[in-house]
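User: What would this chain look like folded?
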Amino acid sequence: MEIEGAGLLLLSGGFDSPVAGHLMRTNRHMDVLALHFSLEPVTDDASTHKAAKLAAMLGFRKLLVVRAGDAFKEIVKRTRHKLYFVLSKRLMMRVASEVARREGCAWLLTGESLGQVSSQTLANLRAIDRAATVPVLRPLIAFDKQEIIDRAKAIGTYEVSVGPELCDVLGPEHPATQARLDEVAAEEANLDMEALVAQVLSTLAVVDTAKGAEVAA
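Assistant: Here's the prediction, encoded as structure tokens.
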């Protein structure tokens, strides 16, 4: 069954999100664009080149990239570290919702699956989704990690995706697993979230997936 409207995939360099995007593009005939959150300047641009290679392999129509490292550092500096993953993903949802609006996408797509890691619990996903203004689809919600890895091998993305998850580099050793909306809101009050969203959006660029190089947005 085809799902009406394009989807904006939050594409990391890991196993999960490429598989999620591939499933929606091939099984549901969805027009998929991708948005990569680079951790520059906390890390180098290796993840952007990885995302470009994955987007080209999977035939995504467009790849956009933003640099979120400085914004994520503000979250670490000004909020309780155990809530980092929830707070950073809520920031990502706000940014992605605006990019989806600009690009005419009806859906956000993520590679999250329930309980795969401690931050991906029902309570946390509920708190994350409340920050989005575009509906969020999670094609892998019921998959376990081995199923995802097997799919990655089948579609040819495994070898590109293998390696450390750079998105975890600023995260806590023991993240919150049952985040409450009231405590999340209290921590976000320590941030100028509107300014952080604007800061991240100001770095938005299109990536030439054939070359892995940024071009004008």
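The chain has a mean pLDDT of 92. If you want, I can go into more detail on any region.
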